Fold this protein.
Amino acid sequence: MVVAIDGPVGSGKSSVAKKLALALGWHHLDTGAMYRMVTLEVLASAGGVADREYGAQVAKRLSFDWGPEGHLLLDGKPLPSAIRDERVSRHVFAIADNRDVRAALVPVQRALGLRHPTVAEGRDMATVVFPDAPFKFYLHADARIRATRRAEQLERQGKAEPVEEILRNLEERDTRDRAREWGALTHAPDAVEVDTTSMSLDEVVASLAGTIRAVQASHG
């Protein structure tokens, strides 16, 4: 039982996935965190993110599993906060675009999703990782709204950044994500499209949860 949520950066999918998983009592699979963890490990070693073979070796040796509260663990411990550092953010694209890294992590993601009811978020959840998921959603929002949300998030963290700069970086990221050779951001034909531009987090979660529960009720 998997809910697959895809969408561009800043569309709210991470926050929505976390809160939806909590509302449903399901596990939350943050696949982006897995690629960030590989990136962090590569950056901490002598290897470089451009070394495709080394990146794959790192991905294969990392051991991800579910924690008791339905969150990812690495070697039995919570993933370090350092995966969200700016240095990791600057280099994660190279790791996520590494075919061999994806070949190592996708089977792990599928195995995790099959063990418990799961809300999975990423760029290719509904198209590559869980193509047979019973619930698929594609979240998107106006680019400037996404940039404004990110600016507000950074401000709360004490890391103020101009909206225009965030918008430029976001649009560049959108272009890269859609042009990826592997795991590109695409809208699965059978995914329910949700425009979050004018919706609050709670409204998006309520909408998705309502759709899921309606389908479950119709199937008994």
Notes: Strands lie at 2-6, 27-30, 64-66, 72-74, 77-78, 118-122, 135-140, 192-195. The two ends are 15 Å apart (CA to CA). The chain has one domain: 2-204. The first strand starts at residue 2 and ends at 6.
